[in-house]
Design brief:
Strand content of chain A: 25-35%
Order of helices and strands of chain A: HHHHHEEEEEEEEEEEEEEHEHEEHEE
Largest sheet of chain A: 14 strands, mixed
Radius of gyration of chain A: 28 Å
Shape of chain A: elongated
Helix content of chain A: 25-40%
Largest sheet of chain B: none
Number of strands of chain B: 0
Oligomer: heterodimer
Shape of chain B: elongated
Largest interface: A-B, 62 and 59 residues
Structural class of chain B: mainly alpha
Chain lengths: 333, 189
């Protein structure tokens, strides 16, 4: 049988006469028929279009689903971040919704639906860091154990996002289109085009902002104050009623080194060292002897393992450690 | 750290099982055109093919609570589409009188019920896994791996092309193979 005619028959472009010749050929012997049967199956699987569903089909399916199931997101919380992005990646990639490719290696992206508004939540779990592209082209580096929420599309008048954790923001400049960064502590950061590091973990006791360039305003709902921060300034706003601390010559390197992969401590109080190491390495600490918390720690680590850092701590501060699975127990030597 | 073993396929099934419409829609959106294309190829009649495709997805949704987490959803989807198409064709073949139409329908029925199609449906899962595995490899590892396995370059040629040492190429390829071996475990064993 002529290959080209066979191919035309399979893709549906054969003429009436060609179709007849193919079918007669197939009917003439068992072997021919079997060959055509296999070719038919082979052809269809080799030509699957993998394109997005037409809008009409989706609407039709939605109608048929009725009100069954739930519109709220099924939240999958998982220790490792690697696999969810993959699942979502595989589907979104084919839908060509986004070039998530390289960025999703450590960022978990999920969709939520609140008050009829779709939002995206990007989550970076403990032990990893990730880069997120916001819908306006702004970029945010998320530190371990952080998440950022933003709408699928920003509103015309302002850009609203919510941060829990630590992020280094590179916001696309547009004075007419401010970005408001909400936190979990009734403090909102208003920016128009700038670069800064914002730390606001829900389990911390303060919010810390280090401005690298541009301008930001910190709007405090609690006392309705507005603080303007200048480049190279660092501000710390404690949760308890206390005045904010402003440092005019911020140690930008210390506060932003995490995004280059450095774990940096500079005379850092032990409780903060522990919190940062918990996020960095995805472990939990148990402190046997509370006097350990009075220690301060200085050190710079890049690719050191958890036990290497702890060894350093042992030598410099006489603090012993024991690692069991994902729990680290600290005690006085 | 048991959860670290969870595969994306399982998570998709879990979400749909839990009645997550958004996840189901994502699945629908990504597979609809493929199923429709497949059904159309056999069923020929466009509007019947569309109905069968919709019914296929709907039957997964309706029986979502019974879904087995270890199941490959894509293969399962095509199996349902195949069965529904077969039912349709068997019904039609009893009604046609034209000799050529009858031959053609019989060929379609045989093709759909043959072993070959089952092997292709089963392989859908594996094809997807291979694609995904490629996508998670870091660039540094993926490049030498593709040059070696897809284009058949020698390690020396790859080293030269990428401006790295042969040792680095060797290491990248063995790292890539490790990832593949781990993710394809269930097919290798």
């Amino acid at each position: 049988m002529n290959k080209e005619i066979l191919n035309r028959y399979l893709n549906g472009s054969a003429t009436k006469a060609e179709r007849e010749s193919v079918l007669k050929w197939a009917a003439s012997s068992e072997a021919n028929r079997e060959e055509l049967e296999t070719l038919k199956a082979q052809w269809v699987f080799d030509h699957l279009p993998s394109s997005a569903a037409p809008e009409g089909a989706i609407v039709k399916m939605r109608k048929r689903l009725g009100r069954s199931g739930s519109n709220t997101r099924f939240i999958i919380r998982i220790a490792a971040v690697l696999f969810i992005p993959l699942a979502i990646f595989a589907f979104y990639q084919r839908l060509q919704l986004n070039e998530l490719k390289d960025k999703l290696s450590s960022v978990n992206r999920s969709i939520t639906n609140q008050a009829d508004k779709d939002s995206l939540i990007y989550t970076v779990h403990t032990g990893v860091k990730g880069l997120v592209d916001l819908p306006d082209g702004s970029k945010v580096w998320l530190n371990s154990g952080s998440s950022i929420k933003c709408p699928l599309m920003f509103a015309d008048n302002q850009r609203d996002v919510e941060l829990d954790g630590e992020g280094y923001f590179m916001v696309k400049g547009d004075p007419e289109w401010p970005m408001f960064i909400g936190t979990k502590r009734k403090i909102t950061i208003k920016v128009t085009g700038t670069e800064f590091n914002l730390t606001s973990y829900a389990n911390d006791t303060e919010l810390r902002l280090t401005l690298v360039r541009g301008n930001v305003a910190i709007l405090n709902e609690k006392d309705h104050s507005e603080i303007l921060v200048k480049p190279m300034e660092e501000i710390v706003i404690p949760d308890r009623m206390a005045p904010p601390k402003l440092r005019q010559q911020a140690d930008v390197h210390l506060n932003t080194a995490w995004k280059e992969g450095f774990l940096l401590f500079d005379n850092t109080p032990m409780d903060e060292v522990i919190k940062r190491m918990e996020r960095w390495y995805g472990v939990k600490f148990i402190v046997r002897d509370t006097s350990i918390l009075n220690n301060h720690f200085t050190g710079e680590f890049k690719s050191e393992s958890l036990s290497q850092v702890l060894d350093f701590l042992k030598k410099s501060s006489f603090i012993g450690y024991k690692i069991e699975e994902t729990t680290v127990t600290l005690s006085r030597l | 750290m048991l959860k670290m073993q969870t595969q994306p396929e399982e998570l998709l099934v879990l979400a749909i099982k839990a009645g997550d419409r958004k996840m189901f829609e994502i699945f629908f959106n990504s597979e609809y055109s493929n199923v429709k294309f497949f059904v159309c190829h056999y069923v020929k009649d466009y509007s019947s093919a569309e109905d069968i495709t919709q019914e296929t997805f709907l039957s997964i949704w309706k029986s979502r609570e019974m879904l087995d987490v270890n199941l490959n959803l894509r293969s399962y989807l095509f199996t349902i589409a195949r069965n529904k198409s077969l039912n349709y064709l068997r019904d039609v073949v009893s009604k046609v009188s034209d000799e050529l139409d009858k031959i053609e329908l019989q060929i379609s029925i045989n093709s759909l019920s043959g072993d070959y199609i089952i092997s292709r449906i089963d392989a859908l899962d594996m094809e997807q896994l291979i694609e995904q595995t490629f996508s998670i490899l870091p660039d540094k590892i993926r490049e030498p791996f593709i040059l070696s396995r897809k284009f058949g370059y020698t390690y020396e040629e790859i080293a030269q092309k990428l401006g790295v040492s042969v040792k680095v190429v060797e290491h990248s390829i063995s790292a890539a193979l490790k990832v593949f071996r781990k993710r394809m475990k269930r097919y290798i064993e």
